[in-house]
Each structure stands twice: as C-alpha cells, then as structure tokens.
Amino acid sequence: MRIPRTFGQYVAVDSPVHRLDAKTKMGLVAAYTVGLFTVERFVGLGIAAALIFLVMLVACVPSRLALRGIRAVAMILTFTVLAHALRWNPATESLLRLGPIAVDAGGLRTGLFFAARIMLLVVGTSLLTLTTTPVQLTDGLERLMRPLSRFGFPAGDVAMMLTVALRFIPTTAEEADKIIVAQMARGARFDEGGLLRRARAYVPVLIPLFVNLFRRADELAVAMESRCYHGGPGRTRLTPARMLMRDWAVLCCGTAALVALGIFA
C-alpha cells in the first residue's frame, strides 16, 4: 500500500469501502453530514466518531492519514472554542478570569461541542477522497447531476472541474511545503516578527506557488486536448460504473442508521 504524503489523496487499497460505487459513498457522506448537524449531544458525536473509526478499519485507511485534515482547520477550531468560551465582564461565575475577560463553563462546553462536530465532519468527508479515485468521483458527480442536463446544465464539465479542484488540493499543499523548505534553506524565516512581518515572509512562497499552479493547469489542459477529451453527451467510459445490490443495501442501511443517529442521539 502506498501512503500519500498529503491530505486528501487516494489510498490504493483493496477493501470493501473502496469497492463501493462512488454514488453510494457520496450519498452516505451527504446523510452523514445531515445527521451530524442534527446531533445535539456529546453522546451523538461519540457514536459518530465510533462509526468513522469503524469505517477506517474496514477501509484499511491509516488513522493518522484520515486525521491529517484536522491540522488544516486548527485555526477554525481554536476560534470556535474561544468565540463561545470567552466572555467580557460576565455577570455569572466563571471557570477562569483574567481581568475583564473570563471563561464561561457553558460557553466552553458549547465551543468544544461545535469544534468536535467540525473535526468529525472533516474526517468523515475526507474518507470519500481517500477511498475513491478522481475518475470515479468524476463519474459519480456527473451521474448525480445528469438530470440537470435537461435544463442545459453542463453536468460533465462541472463534474470535471470539481474533480480537478479536489485533485489539486493535495498537490498544492505538497508544492507549498517544498517551496517553504527551499526558502528556509535560503535563510527565510517564517516564525519571527509580528503578524505583518510573517505575512510578508510568505510572499516569496505564494508567487512561485501560483506560477506552478498556472503551469500545471496549462499542462493539464494540453494533455486533455491531446487526448481529444470533450465533456457533454456522447462521452464514453472505459469501465462504466453501476450500482450493484450491495451498493443499494449499504446506502439504504447506512442512511437509515445516520438518520436515526440524528433523530435520537
């Protein structure tokens, strides 16, 4: 098994989750998202975390790889907790007080609840890209949006653009890491000075990063044109994807379980 270096890249493993149809996994992700946002207690979040851990075991996806996306939303998680926990001159008793600023117990609990919900959402949705190839994602998205083609909606083109965008996220992160390491080897410092100085230090990183992104996009466009790619009606597939009985069974049972989680947990 080849372990990708960046978050969101496909993990090539032969597992029951990998063999499911892309539309089945998209439907389960949608049901999981709805069920997660209807949960109102920590017990429900605990059950959702157990379900995600079970899926990771069945899919043979390393937990450190699935949890890697939490680092990308660390600032959002911190802001969520602080925005709910901190109070200015609270009238009630506080857990901790520093001058006019205090930590409210109820606000801290609410902030931790929403932060845990965001973490579970990131980890759960990342399993879709970790267990589904970009080609399967494109095919699944196009088939889901196919009814909109009757109204002139370019389902094939939109599906391809979304898939390319998803594929470029880990590539962009890996490219940024390489540029940062190269700039640090040349004496650049990204952890010194105030906020403005640190922001300016990233300018030598952003410029070559955007140049490389435009170069990769141009190379991708040339490669697609040289292979006579065109979206829309009439496009054929090497391996047409079809939902089997197991896909329908997993989709129905999984959706029912997630709806029950959102209602009763």
Q: Which key phrases capture this entry?
A:
single chain; 265 residues; mainly alpha; three-stranded antiparallel beta sheet; 12 helices; 3 strands; 67% helix
Descriptive overview:
The protein is mainly alpha-helical and 265 residues long. The protein has a domain at 1-133 and 242-265. 67% of the residues lie in helices and 3% in strands. It contains twelve helices and three strands. The chain has helices at residues 16-19, 22-38, 42-59, 63-66, 69-72, 74-85, 105-130, 134-144, 155-185, 195-201, 203-226, 245-264, and strands spanning 86-88, 96-98, 101-103. A three-stranded antiparallel beta sheet has the order 1-3-2. α8 (134-144) packs antiparallel against α9 (155-185). The two termini are 37 Å apart. The model has no long low-confidence stretch (mean pLDDT 82).
What's the short version?
The chain is mainly α and 265 residues long. The protein has helices at 16-19, 22-38, 42-59, 63-66, 69-72, 74-85, 105-130, 134-144, 155-185, 195-201, 203-226, 245-264; strands spanning 86-88, 96-98, 101-103.
